Amino acid sequence: MSGDERRTALIVGASRAIGLAMAAEFLKRGWDVIATVRGTQRTPLHDLTDTAGDRLTIETLDMTVPQQIAALRDRLAERSLDLLFVNGAITKGDLPVNEVPTDMFVEVMVTNALSPIRVIEALKDLVPESGTIGVMSSSQGSISLNTNGGQELYRASKSALNQLMRSFAARHSNDTRTLLLINPGWVQTELGGPRALLTIDQSVPGVVDTITAHQGEPGLHFLDYRNQVVPW
Questions:
Q1: Averaged pLDDT for residues 92-102
Q2: Which of 115, 142, 147, 201 is paired with 2 by a 20 to 30 Å CA distance?
Q3: What distance in Å separates the CA atoms of residue 140 and residue 178, rounded to the nearest whole number?
Q4: Quick one: pLDDT at residue 1?
Q5: DSSP code of 48?
Q6: Chain centre distance of CA 155
Q7: What is the pLDDT of residue 147?
Q8: How far apart are CA 116 and CA 113, in angstroms?
């Protein structure tokens, strides 16, 4: 890819697991990558600088802190993002929702639903009309697919994220940018657990394929790592 064709992706939440693998995959495909980590400790993401050089920029961001989102926006003011993608979520165990403490409910909802939308609202103007804005969702955020129950708070947070992205799309109905909700599948991560059906290496290339396949398609799309539509 020549210098004038290089594209830039911002991956929010890339210190490990799926976010880290996404950053590595985009670098492998010739993109420039800006990737965020929380705090100042060295992470596996930093190891990518050994081969990526100046094509990888590491930024610090805790997306649950609005002041840090604003500071990141200021630091990136001169950048253009072909892709803004918000990764990262937490779960606090598989409790029936009536047993979830209020502070836990708030923490999960703020991290998984509110904070990604805050990041998008703050940084959307850095994404050109032909660009893509995406967030990592989950099939567990699908209301119609919830036939087994379980993981009630996590499910609710992802459903809330999907609804907020719907609202964002509605408020920007004339926007030509691509909006994506991505389900990476059940992946063997700290969140997905060791029993998950997919490895990170099985999921992430498909995630990136799906993202790039829909560049230039306006509107909101809820898709999985196989580029299949996920029911709402």
A1: 93
A2: 201
A3: 22
A4: 45
A5: T
A6: 16
A7: 93
A8: 6
